[in-house]
Amino acid sequence: MPYRRLPKTDAARLKALKTVLDCNDIYTVRNRIVDWQVLNRCRPAYDRLLTACEQYRVCMMAQKRKTGQMEKLQRNAAMFLSHFIQVLFLAMERGEIKPRYKQLYGFAESDAAVPSLKSAESLLEWGQKVVDGERERLRGGGLPIYNPTIGKVATHIDIFRDAYNEQRLRQRHTAAALAAVQRLRPEVDAVLLDLWNQIEAYFASEPPEVRYAECRKLGVVYYYRRKEPHLY
Asked: Which domain of life is it from (predicted)?
């Protein structure tokens, strides 16, 4: 015999509720398939879940739309910062800049390799350190580094930082929208459970071939076990 199972996805929840709401037979006084109190809970539950799902979809699309742009800005900022650090270290090897100035940039005097800039957090952290360090050295009378200049490095870091902060804000909006959907799921499932219980109770006296067909018309979802024959 097939068994009943509540929907697992929001799309399935909405479909189950809409099936009931679109069925005119369920509203007739003569049939009284479902109690009016349950029916009165269906429409608000459907509308709230539909609105929440749409809001989540819009937030997620906005977040995904900016992902490619974010990756490009991050690559550019990392490239300019990495090149600047390499030029800085080479200048120190040639004796043009004293190695003791490494501490201004957040490096130990023994450091000779570019730090990892793969994550957004490390890129922003090292970007700020290097920009601040170079500006501090220049204020002390040091000669500027060219190709790239610290101004160009700072510009790319600032552009990426702004985009990163905006993306973080979009991610928070997406997370809040998802949380709103998740909060609604238990309420919708409770409505569906009450609704399906009453629908099945109404058709309980009918033979299986009639009972399952009528319940399906009103949105009740049945599943067959593996290798079980689909009789109804």
From this structure: Bacteria
**Residue with structure tokens 């997370």?**
175
pLDDT at 31: 60
Decide: 220 and 20 in contact? Cβ < 8 Å.
no
The DSSP secondary-structure symbol of 6 reads -
How far is CA 224 from each of CA 16, 139, 163, 217, 229, rounded to the nearest angstrom?
18, 77, 50, 17, 8
pTM: 0.80
Task: Let me know: does 153 contact 126? Beta carbons within 8 Å.
Answer: no
Q: Say how far apart CA 205 and CA 106 lie, in whole Å.
A: 79
Residue pLDDT, tens place only, 161-204: 999 999 999 999 999 999 999 999 999 999 999 999 999 999 99
Structure tokens at 31: 């049939």
For residue 88, give Cα distances in angstroms to 48, 98, 155, 172, 193.
58, 10, 18, 38, 68
Domain assignments of the chain as residue spans, ordered by start: 3-65+174-223, 69-167
- pLDDT digit string (tens) for 79-106? 999 999 999 999 999 999 999 999 999 9
150 residue type, one letter: I
Consecutive H or E run containing 168: helix 150-202
DSSP state string for 114-154: PPP--SHHHHHHHHHHHHHHHHHHHHTTPPPP-SS-HHHHH
